[in-house]
Design a protein that fits this description.
The structure is a homotetramer of 384-residue chains.
Chain A: E1 6-12, H1 19-28, E2 33-39, H2 44-53, H3 65-74, E3 83-87, H4 94-102, E4 106-109, H5 117-130, E5 134-136, H6 144-154, E6 161-169, H7 183-188, H8 191-194, H9 199-215, E7 219-227, E8 238-245, E9 250-256, E10 267-272, E11 275-280, E12 286-291, E13 296-300, H10 308-312, H11 324-343, H12 358-376, E14 382-383
Parallel strand pairs in A: 1-2, 1-3, 3-4, 4-5, 6-9
Antiparallel strand pairs in A: 6-10, 7-8, 7-14, 8-9, 10-11, 11-12, 12-13
């Protein structure tokens, strides 16, 4: 049924990259994708070193993404990469994405989608024009219990949603690491490479995406208070936001990279008239479900009582923990499956289209802009 | 060393009262206080019924608090009550408190202190004038692990505080219970009996008190978004608030009575430059302490490694859970001990003065006013 | 309806006693019992000091329990104590219990009931002869969620029980504290004061009582491996036991006082054909309930969905934690209520008779004997 | 540095296989191994179907493992598989393992190693004779926090070990699934395919392996009580075992497949003189560490304070959960790395040799034999 393995090229993911390796592991996990080429670093030596680490054919280790797209485009059908994975710092998302689309390659890009809203809109248009697939790795939405939560709300089990609390506290930037030799800290706190926002762009956008993905609602007004706590830091390292949603629900979103002791504690609670759901990324295989005057219910991944969509996105039986790589891999698997269906000229099934797209990426970019605007405003509410 | 048992009278706490019984249990626990009289209800039959349930001398079961103060005042030194416990709905806090002070009785009052800020200020002046003791039962500050958290911050173990998140979600008012026969729901959602605020007055004030008690900081600006989610309800049943503190720290306070599935989930996280603390009221005997790049630390009540103030407020060895009645009892014990020292004309030791006072009550009343003001304002920040 | 306050005398509970204070707090909590006399120590000065701390009439502070029973017996009906609380080390349980019964006083005794099985049998006969009430403080059975678990099994919600695992690990005797100045460690590790067993008598008996109380089953065969890990200790400080129950269920019971890091971690899991329950003493307000192919269910104390017996034994609404003193107080309340009914010559309702009795005490004593026997045996199974 | 990708063949893992897919995912994750051939089922059609699902060259999809070994052996160096993964039911472990070794292929076999101890001993001898690598997937030892625990004990941070409790409860065989159409239940409860033991062979051996791997101790005496709870089942579905270790430590091991509500709850506690560790497979990224009179310590995977061996076996930063596939993948990665070093004729570094071997497999087989022996014995202790 599956046509063939799907061929991936990579941009970024060279030595010292954290997220590049995660993309790679996630893409490899199911054996449905093979890495065939890459431009892993703007330094050709580093790119070659990385490519060799991936056991690539040296001829397909490129010194620049421009070079990669030009050369790959010329390869025959049976060899040419199908899609590109973009795992570079934020300011190098737009150019390779644009060039990939212009040259006929599908894209998986890390978030935020681009450096500016304008760039994001250009990509949206290109996607619409080319009909190519474009996934953005808001990977937390790939967890099966996140999909279970979404399913519960789609089934109206909670009644009308009243309140959403989404948190994304981290503590790893509590000290001025960017003044030392941390590559991760350095680019994430540099406006030239990270964009208008620091913490809120890096992780605040994940929090919004998760809230909107699960709830099916859209935030329409925000009230933001962003902070820079570490001296001489140039971008926000913490932010607290009040939200109002399109159905009248209220919300809170807060994210932080100076919350000492927090690791990567993305979590969400959604309260409706008849029930609520709670999910915590650090214990991702459990979903807490509450209903009026009933015992607390813990739904656990891998059980037969879960929704089809949750089961489809789970690889192991209950009690065998899955983690972030598996969630990430669900995006890759769904995208690769979509490409396979396309190659076979078949209709793409709904379950294969379940991944964050360029539109989610654009929304994240707009959110960053609005946060900056609200943070500067003396008025309470900023339309979103 | 202890002079004698301290004698308590009660106002409120008749049939159907939840908090009255808690006050009673807490006062009894240590055997340092005896109940000698009460005006348990404005209905004399109900008052008598309640008093008999407490095994009181029928002559000292009163039909009104006015009657109680007048009669008790005339009793001889060896019989007269020493202090009054006020456990009535909010609109009946001020009058008995005022009358108690005017007649020479110490007071333990439930919160909020009064119905208006002006009344609260009158009580403050009366306390200052009479020198009587006045405790307000922000009882969550009575937990030993809360005191441990406060001690950690006082010792500067966390460095400068950057962020405080305090939550108080409940779900019990998710349905319009006040339109049925729930006595608790009825008065708490009635502006005439509850005051200007509903949820925020009932529990939001606890959250602020806890944050300020542990951190030693004061909120100076607030930005509030209050909601009424249940149709025809007259007071807020949910509120989200951004905070700014006097040292530059940022914060979030949210409280709710429509968060289905939440029981009484008061919890707080305080992040400083060097570490953080986290405490959850529903598992009160554990304090989570984090320090930069160290394993998470769980401090548990009853252990020898805890501070003196935590140990002083603990009755049982480690692993033997204590609950809310014990936390409540710490306020009663400290007040009773203060009275005993006063009776013996001795200086009152610091540990006995560790309970929330009329000043905390006043601050809570002001907070309610400011929340209402901020909620109506188009501007982001309201000075507090 | 309640006749009058019930009057308690105490034996033991002097300076340095841990459990004496717990008994006192538990007895006081509900205001249904008053302490009227006591023989708190075999040292008259210490007894007086303790009695004064309890604000007792000096005339009713006795230098010995013998003296107490003799004098109290002669007091008029309206003054004489109704029952005695025995909170002494193990070797001083039997004599005061026996003398109390012989003089017409009801008894609440700490466990183990006596020093030997023979003594326990004497007490059983005396109880049967006198018709007096005799409670033994296996207090963990007083928790509401323990009663909920028992109720679930009585209702056959789990089907036939297959497996029981009950654990009681502590770590406080990991070092040879008895060779220092710890009063608690000293008598608990001394065969002359503690009895035939150390750890297993002190806490292993609680574990068995809990398993049999909740399950309604009786252990009929045991296979024990007891250990002394700390050098020069005279009694077991750890024990592992296989169990077989009267219905064919299998089980494990293990207790320890050398499990470093464990506080007082009594916990139990009971598995039936159709479901299971799990309860952990250190988080006593939650009961975990599982049913075949269903989400995990967390039942929480204070909720309306619980059984009547759980609700009856709960004082606070959901989310307001209760602890060990409240569980202990349930025994006192039920005994005092039984006495009140008896005083009124009324039938004692079933809920008031729900406390561990002299028969539970006897069973604990036999368990200790059988553990010692099994531990010495080369054969796998010892009949119980 | 790495010579080349390592080539894997598979035996088993056809349609309906659970563990085969886990082996595959684990092998793929790091991109260090490629699947080149397989004999996925004894039914050639099913084998071909499975092989196509893995995108294999049809010429290298074999109808039997015998065929596979014979054909692969003849392939040139640059194509021939390097090792075989054996993911068949238990009774088909020995033959392919033996044949692989005899034909010069390294082996990764699922556990239990073989059907009988005698077969296991044959494999040990073949491994010793050939010098080939042989990994057995006691995969739980692949978790980084398990390795952290082992490291703590190797560093003597806990002092002499006194007590070990290892549990492996599951509930999935609570009903007679083998009498329906469950392929997994069918072979696991069939003595002809599973071996002498059911539950104890399937998961009890994992529990023993984990206890011995972390503690560095060896069980020397056991006392077992095995049960069959489900009617007409032919093999044990539950077992309780007392243990004694070579250093004098005591222990308990229990495993179950009829513990309703338990998913895959392998967990272990090891208590020493000075401290203890606790690890729970279902929350694998946390290790609980206790030391005398210190707060509880939670060590979390990915943190800089962990041991080198834990860090080496972790792929993601703290707070990004890893699961069982990653633990499994550590075995594959280490084996593949060992092969690469061997191909390069270099000394194999210690970290690459950290996986369970044929000796662990043999020990598991002996444990099964001794459990059966002890279970039948009237004597308490059976030497192991």
């Amino acid at each position: 049924m599956r046509s063939r393995k799907i061929r991936m090229g990579m941009v970024g993911g060279g030595p010292g990259s954290f997220i590049g390796r995660v993309h790679f592991n996630a893409a490899m996990l199911d054996g449905q994708i093979e890495l065939v080429c890459g431009a892993f670093s703007s330094d050709p030596d580093k790119s070659r070193e990385a490519g060799e680490g991936y056991y690539l054919n040296p001829e397909r280790i490129y010194g620049s993404f421009q070079d990669m797209f030009e050369k790959e485009k010329l390869l025959p059908d049976g060899e040419r990469m199908d899609f590109v994975c973009i795992a570079t710092p934020n300011h190098v998302h737009f150019e390779p994405s644009k060039m990939a689309l212009e040259n006929g390659f599908h894209v998986v890009s890390d978030k935020p989608l681009t450096y500016t809203v304008e760039e994001a809109e250009i990509l949206v248009k290109l996607v619409e024009k080319t009909g190519l697939f474009f996934a953005v790795t808001h990977a937390y939405s790939g967890y099966p219990m996140v999909k279970e939560a979404r399913n519960i709300i789609q089934n109206n089990e909670l009644g009308s949603i009243r309140k959403i609390i989404v948190e994304y506290p981290q503590g790893w930037l509590s000290l001025p690491l960017e003044q030392g030799d941390s590559k991760q800290a350095s680019w994430r706190t540099d406006p030239k490479r990270s964009g208008k926002a620091g913490c809120m762009g890096d992780i605040g956008t994940h929090a919004l995406n998760l809230a909107e993905y699960i709830s099916g609602l859209r935030a329409t007004e925000i009230c933001a208070d962003l902070s820079i706590f570490v001296e001489n830091r140039k971008l926000d390292d913490d932010g607290n936001v009040l939200l109002r949603f399109d159905n009248g629900a209220k919300g809170i979103l807060h994210a932080s990279q100076i919350s000492v002791g927090e690791e990567n504690n993305l979590n969400i609670r959604i309260y409706g008239e008849k029930g609520s759901v709670k999910w915590i990324q650090q214990e991702p295989n459990t979903l807490i479900v509450n209903r009026l005057d009933k015992p607390i219910e813990l739904r656990r991944s891998g059980n037969s009582y879960l929704s089809e969509i949750a089961s489809y996105n789970t690889r192991l039986p209950f009690g065998h923990p899955e983690g972030l790589i598996e969630a990430f891999a669900n995006i890759y698997r769904n995208l690769a499956t979509s490409i396979q269906y396309k190659l076979m000229a078949k209709d793409i099934p709904e379950f294969a289209m379940d991944y964050p797209t360029v539109y989610d990426g654009l929304r994240g970019m707009k959110f960053i802009d609005k946060l900056i605007e609200s943070n500067k405003s003396d008025y309470k509410w900023t339309k979103f």
